[in-house]
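User: My advisor asked me to double-check a structure prediction for AP-1 complex subunit gamma before group meeting. I don't want to rely on an old file, so could you generate it fresh from this sequence?
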Amino acid sequence: MPAPIRLRELIRTIRTARTQAEEREMIQKECAAIRSSFREEDNTYRCRNVAKLLYMHMLGYPAHFGQLECLKLIASQKFTDKRIGYLGAMLLLDERQDVHLLMTNCIKNDLNHSTQFVQGLALCTLGCMGSSEMCRDLAGEVEKLLKTSNSYLRKKAALSAVHVIRKVPELMEMFLPATKNLLNEKNHGVLHTSVVLLTEMCERSPDMLAHFRKLVPQLVRILKNLIMSGYSPEHDVSGISDPFLQVRILRLLRILGRNDDDSSEAMNDILAQVATNTETSKNVGNAILYETVLTIMDIKSESGLRVSVIFNLDACAHITMSKIVFRYVALTSLLKTVQTDHNAVQRHRSTIVDCLKDLDVSIKRRAMELSFALVNGNNIRGMMKELLYFLDSCDPEFKADCASGVFHAAEKYAPSKRWHIDTIMRVLTTAGSYVRDDAVPNLIQLITNSVEMHGYTVQRLYKALIDDISQQPLTQVSSWCIGEYGDLLVSGKCEEEEPIQVTEDEVLDVLEGILVSNLSSTVTRGYSLTAIMKLSTRFTSAVNRIKKVVLVYGSSIDVELQQRAVEYNALFKKYDHMRPALLERMPIMEKTSTNGPTEIVQTNGETEPSILETKHVPNVPQPANQANDLLDLLGGNDVMPVIQTAPPTKLVSAGGELLDLLGDLSLSGGVPASGPPVSISQPPFLLDGLASQPLFNDVAAGIPPMIAYNKNGLKIDFTFERSNTNPNIAVITMHASNSTEAEMTEFVFQAAVPKTFQLQLLSPSSNIVPALNAGTVTQIIKVLNPQKQQLRMRVKLTYSHKGSSLQDLAEVNNFPPQSWQ
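Assistant: Sure, here is a fresh prediction for AP-1 complex subunit gamma from the sequence you gave:
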């Protein structure tokens, strides 16, 4: 058989291919020749064939048939064969394939080889693709090489030890004696890998973290030598001595100094020196400055040091447009800093707002996130003006996040209800198609509660509706508002601005135009039809016209509109005497307070807790698997199942709710449960003590809050209140916050208690936990403890983060005695 072509010739031949089909033909032809050579057990050219196969693998063609040949090359005594064999193993094999276990013995022999380069190849392969079984078998050899005096082997052994610890964390203590002298090494490669190894051990074990805190002075000394050392061509990068090692040391110092006063005090001076002396005109300097800022903000550093760092970041943000990387690093650092030192970042608000006008999308996004983080009650008007201007001119990809941020800030810091309403309407007018789903009900609730603003609001919304009906959320709110307060619009009662003259027929023309418009969605048409129906009690002279409209849509091809119209037509015919009472204005609706457990509604001058009803709660179909999840939380049979309070299921349609008010009408249908229905009755303590006084204390009666869970960036806090009417009821408010850079979606909090208690979970405020502690998700937990026993609880957390679904169980036993005694 003729000698196969060399790798260089194969590369040259493939590059001459003019089309992809021609390249595939060349590859297939060469693969066939390589397979033939493998079948003939040709040892002479095996190394050359595997090298060509690896090149084809890099081009994206299948090369799995060369896996066993790589093992044969590893077993060879020639260094050139071993080099290609180990390279092929790292590229073609992984721990998911059982073939890799066949090379364990070869790696073990090579780790004890007399040649350092062969030992280095074995260490690289183990650190790249070693499985947990292989790591257990070879950890002893790695630990021996970690103690050797050879710098070349020590740095490779340290990286292999990192991989072993990641795969088998219980082997961590094996490497502890070998780490004692690692930081005394002069070789920068060994120092770098040693710092990586120490970082991995500290992140995975609190005991290791406490053990290595005594190394802080030594790390500070190494970092100082790097800064003060002169020019070294071996380590110099853009005029900075070994920036890679500096960054690694800063990360390790951040871990060691977190929540430790002594360690933080030991590193304050060197961090100040790095922050002020690092040259930021090049990328390597900005990388070091970025890590320094994160370290200063994460440890217990001095306040003056923090202010100095923020000033440097502000200077970076002022750099010309050509320095986009610097601006991005500065804004990202300020965004992390604002959580710990809000006032210091607030001084540089104008610089941050200027970055909203940047041409680079990443700069604009960081500036937008930072601007929302700086909003407070003192600057709300000025910041909203800038952010609304940004909302008008920004790209569509920013509008959803910007609109959501404006809603949140306005709800939290609005100086007046008129300003709040005007701001939300401005957002709906400019970015109505991008707002979140709860924007419409939230604005409706805000308008309902602002009794003195009804005339002004309905007039503003009517004008907006005449100008544009393409923004569906704005059209829905306008239709609802006109249906509720159309009589105020026609009467011209508006003290806030000059009233407009409009007739009843003109108002109905606008609403009927929404019904027939191609721009209107089914939901919007439903809002419009309901508004027209409500106006039948406000516009007495237009009742016949409204009857005709309702009658026409009784035969609509849209099932939702048809059902609404049929039910409204039944009101006109059978229950006309009840129509004025059924279609009267909505009462004031109060949102559940973030500091209180209950929702107090003012109805006809009487105060009633809206979440407590005197009527028996009907049985709710609940999936069996969800009930079983809750019953399994405590791992036993002495569990009191949780009663989840959720919005009622809409059985047939929105229109069915209206006819149900007329009497005991049995509506068929419903959403089938995924399992047999679980009958859950209302706990008796919820029916006690319905009085005119507030049900719960507004302020926790001396009960300290507690942290129930803090892991992977998710933090669960409990605050406590005591019932005024029943001292055996403890009301716990769960606050979920997220300190990571990505939001947590599909968040579900579940809880279970022993059966001597009774527990009820109310609906959460949201199922999305915002990133970077930009907001919290709250949920009310009510616990009846008649026997005054110590409270125990198991919680189950389910959420999606960065594309992965996560689930965790935790037991909470450290409740404050005041919460259950």
